[in-house]
User: Which sequence fits this backbone?
DNA sequence: AATGAATGAGCCTTCATTCAT
DNA sequence: GATGAATGAAGGCTCATTCAT
């Protein structure tokens, strides 16, 4: 009747895996401890025994999903830090998109749910994990826009780029494309094609900002000459 | 003990308003009928009397929020259809952003929750209400990219533009900026500034796509000359 | 919007009819006032307005169904009181069976429900309406069994006869036969055939009792001769 | 505050017993889970924990009552299958009546309620449990009537016999007699006396049918001789 | 260490009845 | 006189958590 357990903490891992799947699929509220335990092949009391509460398990699961994801997809997309900024931007864009569309990755859905239904417990995770990524992108954008850009311009620009990658509709479309349609090359192909597009589009956007800054600069210089 | 009933559908409206607020704030599951009724100043049974069930009320509320939103913010942003496409693009961007950041508008949060936790009931609303908006933007993008662009290019481009407007992080930031910070001009100012940015950035992106298409065109012409 | 009502008490009658149907079909508890009023084309408050309460309507309905039934099916089955007792027994048996299987008759189902789930309110009706019928049959049985039969013998015999007619399984079978099968002669044919059977069977039973009494009588006479 | 749990299925049994009593007394609808649990000394959630739902508990209770009843009262009434058919008929009649009037037996009241207010769930039980009993009686009747009797005659005859035993009025009378009146010998005595009566009455009925068949037979023979 | 029975708070829903028009 | 909105008392069920082994 009992499953042979080689270690005490094997159940813990099973619970984490089961929870990861179900939480990502149904969200916190619609997930029941019973279901998690059943899928994990454990007792109903197992969650409270190993994690203390549903809340704690949730947080733990989130953390786990996030760190797994970061491990699997390095934020630079495999591009060397010596590469030209355009290349590094491509790396970051690809990284986000791959991370997002990795079938084993629940992180994105956790985040979606959190944004829609913040539990508060995860603000902390967001700060610790997401902000560094943002700062990395912000730094790159600053590099591309040059020192003349205001902080707001850099901020907006970073939002523009990341938004294109994080739009849930995008994620869903890609996912569905890969799962429903002729489940073959299209999935991956799509992601790469979209990454190319985002890079091209964003570089165009950045160039437009640079040109506008240039004009302003000239105007200011003119004005300075004739006060 | 009884509230004076001045009209038949007055309670109904109160319930709709209360539900709109609480559903948007907490989501379907975490919202209790009791809370809605209490805020609406009605009896616990009022929801089931007027709407039949929590589900129905939810759908009704969603629908209501959406149509109110469409009414308040015409999708062209008040720009004439005779205006040049760049102006019309500004109109659409502004429309989405205003719609999103309108304090009385819960629609966006409903949508967020639905994407995270689909009830299935709302697929229909999505199709009926969202797709037309997308088609409108797609048509405009096609106009800007010209007939040489592929459907995929147009599609990606439309996603790029809309994503920048619909990013929940943006919405949240703007909202929080308007509500927590010096609750003053910053809110609206922010939206307008961001709209300007998105327009500029996107036009830059589009121009980049056009140029890329031009090069391809030239290459093809060359190839055609020397077979 | 309002149905033209020629009299005040027209609604009352509609309610009674609707209630009769639904109570008989579903029983007291499973019937809702709302359903009754809907079928009667009246307001939800109509029942309480016209009858004071659900209980009262129930009692009223029962009484109504019962008296209607007695009116429609005279307990002697149309057989003259001058006819020989066997004929009169046939009349009574036929009367009960017809009464029971009359499609417009809810009375039997009310009784069934009452026996299973007595409301207490109806004890009175039972005494007033059922007992006279029983006494009538008892008298006839006494006539058939002669003065030598004990009261218990008469009582048992009466039960035997009436039981054969009132068995709900019988009622159900006949009803279903008439409603599902080729909804034609079979229904009535069945009833008549069964009535014939019950008469024959019961007269046989009575004769057996008489013979047994005869033997006892002889024994007693013998015993009396040889004290 | 907590009841010592000596065994796993002890609570289950308590619930079954309590449910059996209350369901039989009040019927499905008028019985509340709370009452059952209270009487069983269990928590309000106990029913749903052990049985899943009120419905399931009801079905389970019914099944339990029925099988208990069959166990306690073998359908042949203790008469050997070698005994003459009249004796076996006495056995069956006695078995039904004893079963019906057994004070610990709720089965009959369940059945009454079901016939009046079918839940549909129990059709199955009826088929599995009741039909075999009927077939047994039918076979015996066929034996008594001989091969010349039509199926309908056998069927009607079986109904006549069983009806006399199953009449709820009989059951009620006997029960009340045993419980209210000089709660003594009358109860059991009554049942035996009534069983005697039913046997005698039914054998008389059967003989009458046989005689009628004999006449028909003679007529047919005559007709065959003079075509 | 781990289980499964048990708990109790809370939720949605139903429904007979009452109230204000 | 009659309506339909409103009420509040339950009832069945779910579920995270606790307890006794």
Assistant:
């Amino acid at each position: 009747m009992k499953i042979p357990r080689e270690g005490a903490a094997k159940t813990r891992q099973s619970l984490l895996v089961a929870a990861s799947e179900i939480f990502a699929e149904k969200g916190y509220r619609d997930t029941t401890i019973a279901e998690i335990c059943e899928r994990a092949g454990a007792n109903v009391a197992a969650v409270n025994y190993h994690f203390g509460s549903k809340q704690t398990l949730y947080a733990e699961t989130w953390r786990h999903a996030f760190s797994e994801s970061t491990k699997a997809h390095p934020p630079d997309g495999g591009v060397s830090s010596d590469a030209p900024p355009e290349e590094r931007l491509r790396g970051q864009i690809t990284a986000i998109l791959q991370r997002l569309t990795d079938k084993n990755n629940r992180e994105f859905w956790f985040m979606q749910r959190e944004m829609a239904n913040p539990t508060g417990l995860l603000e902390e995770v967001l700060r610790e994990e997401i902000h560094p990524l943002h700062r990395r992108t912000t730094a790159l954008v600053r590099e591309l826009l040059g020192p003349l850009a205001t902080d707001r311009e850099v901020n907006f620009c970073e939002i523009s780029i990341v938004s294109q990658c994080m739009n849930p509709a995008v994620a869903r479309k890609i996912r569905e494309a890969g799962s429903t349609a002729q489940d073959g090359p299209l999935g991956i192909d799509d992601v790469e094609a979209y990454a190319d597009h985002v890079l091209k589009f964003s570089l165009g956007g950045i160039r437009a900002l640079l040109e506008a800054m240039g004009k302003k600069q000239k105007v200011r210089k003119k004005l300075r000459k004739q006060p």
Notes: DSSP finds ten helices and no strands in chain C. Residues 32-34, 44-45, 47-48, 53-54 of chain C lie near DNA strand E (CB under 10 Å from a C1'). Chains C and A do not touch (no CB pair under 8 Å).
